[in-house]
Amino acid sequence: MKWIDATTLKNWASSRDCQENLPFVIQRLVRATSTDISNIAFPSGNSIIYSGWDGILEVIKGNEYIPEGLSVWEIGTNENIKKKANDDYQKRKENTLGIDAKETTFIFVTPRIWPTKDSWAKEKKAEYFWKDVRVYDARILEEWIEQAPVVGAWLAQYLKICPVGVISLEDW
C-alpha cells in the first residue's frame, strides 16, 4: 500500500517538522535498503542547528539510491531549491570538512519537486570536484520509499495520513 507520494512530501516541505525529521527519514531509508553500512550519521531533530554535513554515509556495497563508498549529504527544504543547492554545494566545495572530495559522492536532497535537478547535477559533475553528484527530489524519495514499505508506513503514520486502524510494524 502506497501512502507517501511526491505531493505528500512537497506539502510537508514547508514545515519546521520536515526540516527536523527529513534527515531521520533518510537514515531510516538507508537502514531499510542497505545491509553493508560502515558509517552513518544523519543528525535530526534539534541537532540540525549544528554545523557540519546533514548526512555522512559509508557503505561497502551501494545500490540504486546509495552510492558505494563514502557519500556526504546536504538536505534543503527551501522553496528556492536551486539557490539552496548552489549555496550548499559551494559552501562544501570551499570547505569539505576534511572529506576527500575526489573519493566522495555529494548528494543534495529536497522534499520538493525539482524538474531541472538532472541538469544541475550534470553541471556540477562536469566540474570533476566530487567523485559524483546526485540530487534526490520528492519524486526520487517517493520511489525510494516505495522500496522500503516499512519506512513508508511509519512516515504515513507519523504524518497522520494512513487509514484508521492501520498500525506500523513497530507499534504492532
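the 2nd protein, sequnce then structure:
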Amino acid sequence: MIGRRDFITLLGGAAAAWPVTAWAQDDRVRRIGVLNALAEDDPEAKLRVLIFQRRLRELGWIEGRTIQIEHRWCGGNPEQIRSDAEKLVASKPDAALAITTPAVLALLQLTRSLPIVFTNVGDPIDSGFVESLARPGGNVTGIATFVNTMGGKWLELFKEVAPRTTRVIVLLNPDNPTSRGVLRSIEAAAPSFMIAIDAARVRSAGEIERALDGIARERGIGLLVVPDPVTVANRALIIGLAAQHHIPAVYPFRYFASSGGLISYGTASEEQYRQAALYIDRILKGANPSELPVQQPSKFELVVNLKAAKMIGLTVPESFLVRADEVLE
C-alpha cells in the first residue's frame, strides 16, 4: 500500500531522478495509450495510474524523453469508452494499457494488432480476451483480478460476520462479462452456505438507488458488490445506502472499506499496475503479448471497518479481526 507521502511524491513527478536505462538499441520515443474506464477525478484510479508510471520510470522509461503517455479517462460512461477507444487506436500507439473489462472490449472491437495489457479484468478466458492463461494467443495479455474461488470466500465472510444472513443481493453490471462470470462463481458456492442469491443488475446511479431501497426493510439480507466502472464510480452512494439501511456488505477492493464500507476482500490492486508496467516494458522491447502469460492474483487483502460495523449494529468477532490484514477504526 502506498503512503500519502509517497502519493504526493508521485504527483510531484520526480522523473529526472530516475536513470535512463531504456532499451539502448532503439532511441525513438515510444507511445503508450492508457484507456481508463474510470474518472480522472477518482483519487484511487489516479493513484494506480501514477503507480504504473512510477514503475515505468524505475524500468528506465522517461516521459517526454523515451516515452509519451496518452491518457483517456472515460468516467464509467459506455459511450465515452467507445469514443475514446476509437481515438486511442487512431493515434497508433506502440502499446496500450486497458483498465477494466469494458476498456478491453472496446479496444478489441477496433483492433487485433495493437498490443494491449489489461488490469482489473476478472476471467479473461471467459470474457473471450485470451485463448489460455499460459499462452494468450492474440494481441492481449495482462493481470487477472479474480480466481474462481472468490465467490465462496465472499459468502464465507457473511456467515462469519453476519451469521443471520440468508440472502445476498449481488450488485453487478450485466453488460460486463466479468460480472457474469463472478455471479456464476457466487451461485455455485451459495448452497454450501445456505444462502439464496439474487442479482441486482444496475447500469447507473439511479438503478443502484432503486435496487438498495427495494431491499431496505428485508431481514437477513447482505450486499455483495461486483467491481465494474459503474459500481466503482458510485461506491460512495453504495456505501452510504448500505449504512443507511443497516445492510452488511462485502466489497472487492480495499478502497471500498477505507471509504466507509464494512468489509473488503480482494486482490492488492496496486500491484497489478506494477506488473502491467513490466509487461508494457517487455512489449516495447519486442515481446509478443500472445506469448506473455496472463498473471493471476497471488495476494489478497481482508480489510474490516469497525466504524461501519458499529453503524449497522454488528459486533465483529475477535477471531475475525485477528485474521484481517487491516482493521480500520
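The two ends are 17 Å apart (CA to CA). The domain at 4-146+268-299 is CATH 3.40.50.2300 (Rossmann fold).
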